[in-house]
Amino acid sequence: MRTDTIQSKANGKNVAKESTPCFELKGSVITMIEMRLLQSNLDFFSIQLDKKVRQAADFFLRAPIVLDLDEVQNDDNEIDFLTIAETIRANNLVLVGFRNGSAQQLKQVKNLGFNILPDTSDRVSSEIELPANNTAEKHTPAQNQNQKPKYTPKPTGVASYSRTVYQPVRSGQQIYAKDCDLVILNSVSAGAEIIADGHIHIYGKLRGRALAGVHGDKSARIFCSNLEAELISIAGYYRVIEEIEDRVKNQAVQIYLKDERVTIEKF
Questions:
Q1: 3-state SS string over 59-118?
Q2: For residue 131, cis peptide bond before it (omega within 30 degrees of 0)
Q3: Most exposed: 26, 63, 65, 198, by fewest CB within 10 Å?
Q4: What's the mean pLDDT in 245-258?
Q5: Sign of CA dihedral 89, 92, 95, 101
Q6: Which residues pair with 196 in a beta bridge?
Q7: Taking the alpha carbons of 162, 163, 168, 173 in that order, is the dihedral positive or negative?
Q8: Cα of 48 vs its chain's centroid, Å
Q9: Does residue 16 surpass a pLDDT of 60?
Q10: pLDDT at residue 62, as a whole number
Q11: Hey, what domains does the chain have and what are their CATH numbers?
């Protein structure tokens, strides 16, 4: 009798513990870098990756990487995925997974214990060059040019189609305006990140990162009162601070895509 009572109390405690939530799931936006493997020959892979990371060390530090195999999926040569993964990790990058490979390549990746992510067919070229010839670059998937961008202004009569932030955006903060524009009525500190599916307006200094049109809207723009950005991006094409000309720094500017190149123009 006593044993049953003790067991009943113990079970009651276990039930109480099990009913207490241990976690919650929330949607989030994380800037990922898409690395497209262009050839199976890896002789210079380590040297080239190390060079790129050194050119923008703060941006790449612990950045999540998705390895895209679309360009090599018909390559008959076997690819040393373990060497690729070790090189990525040695450069303080986080390999999230692989995608767009052949059935044989993805089977090999799976057998090695790596993640396989969904294939993408709605993207444009995403070659990364840092900071060669001041060219615009791409680090997130974008939509096919023949498809309409996911971001569209809301119909006339809707009270608001923007998200407005009145306080300074501090280092370490990330603000995302989903399906709308983002208006910052203050400054954005270094180490902060602001993201929008539409345009971004900043009425203070931009020292952190600003990414507009993140779901592929190439018509998106960034308007900034004082440009000191670590990184600016339109529809996945971007420039880091080393690529921004001195003539537009500390100036009021608008930033937009022209011929798939990030263009900065003074007001």
A1: HHCCCEEEEECHHHCCCCCCCCHHHHHHHHHHCCCEEEEEECCCHHHHHHHHHCCCCECC
A2: yes
A3: 26
A4: 93
A5: negative
A6: 177
A7: negative
A8: 21
A9: no
A10: 84
A11: 33-121 (3.30.70.260), 162-266 (2.160.20.70)
First to last CA, the chain: 85
Classify residue 247 by burial, with Cβ atoms within 10 Å: 0-12, 13-18, 19+.
Answer: exposed
Helix%, strand%, coil% for the chain, nearest 5: 25, 25, 50
Rg, the chain, Cα only = 23
**Dihedral sign from CA coordinates of 232, 238, 240, 246:** negative
Higher-pLDDT residue of 140 and 86 is 86
**Average pLDDT for the chain:** 80
Give the pTM. 0.55
Helices (H) and strands (E) in the chain, counts: 5, 15
Tokens of 217: 């809207």
